[in-house]
Design brief:
The protein is an alpha/beta fold. 30% of the residues lie in helices and 25% in strands. Helix 3 (102-106) links the parallel strand 5 (91-96) and strand 6 (110-112).
Length: 212
């Protein structure tokens, strides 16, 4: 039987690229099996901004996951509301591209967007990210967002990852943050980074489990 020491629970909050939606994704990590179980996905329209902190705090009080990571770009007022009004412990992070200092990458406060994405691609190639067999509507939306989240190259040869057009990517970004925050529990030997063009290039195991 698994104990609390074997299972890590955490959640992440992120905004979409057009800042029109906020998403929360919570996961469980089995440290022995090195698997990620995606347990909860919620998203809200940005026009509900005054209601979202209350709803997130309510979920937190019901489920009591461990750390909550939030992208600084979600908004200072939003973060302060969660902290001071709802008393949620938060780990604020910055997502940047092409971060050169490895010491910065190891500090959880800063996460390189390219490293985060490529780490997720590795996890999916290794079938380490498992979704519910009967997903909720929002969980299904997360899977759709991930299938659209793609690699783009500029004329100068720089690489970036995002959803095309007007598609949202808030849930995908939240899951990226989750997994990267927990990467020390998920690395398998000296597995290299798998670089593909988008997440749906690899098949995904369907795993029956209960959602939060």
């Amino acid at each position: 039987m698994k104990t609390n020491d074997d299972i890590i629970r955490l959640a992440a909050i992120a905004h979409s690229k057009h800042r029109n939606a906020i998403g929360l994704v919570a996961i469980e990590i089995d440290k022995d099996l090195k698997l990620v179980y995606v347990k909860l996905a919620r998203q809200w329209s940005r026009d509900k901004i005054n209601e979202i902190p209350y709803e997130i705090a309510k979920l937190y009080n019901q489920i009591r996951w461990g750390n909550t990571y939030i992208d600084q770009l979600t908004g200072q007022h939003f973060i302060q509301d969660l902290r001071t009004v709802h008393h949620m412990p938060l780990q604020i992070i910055n997502t940047q591209k092409n971060l050169k200092d490895p010491d910065d990458i190891e500090r959880i406060e800063v996460m390189d967007k390219i490293e985060m994405t490529q780490f997720m691609l590795t996890l999916r190639q290794n079938h380490q990210v498992l979704f519910p067999e009967n997903p909720s509507k929002t969980m299904g939306e997360l899977e759709v967002q991930m299938s659209l989240y793609s690699e783009y190259k500029t004329e100068a040869g720089n690489v970036d990852y995002y959803a095309p057009g007007d598609e949202k990517d808030n849930l995908t970004k939240a899951l990226l943050i989750d997994c990267f925050a927990a990467r020390k529990y998920l690395k398998v030997g000296d597995v290299g980074i798998y670089v593909g063009s988008q997440f749906n290039e690899t098949s995904e195991i369907n795993y029956s489990m209960r959602q939060f």
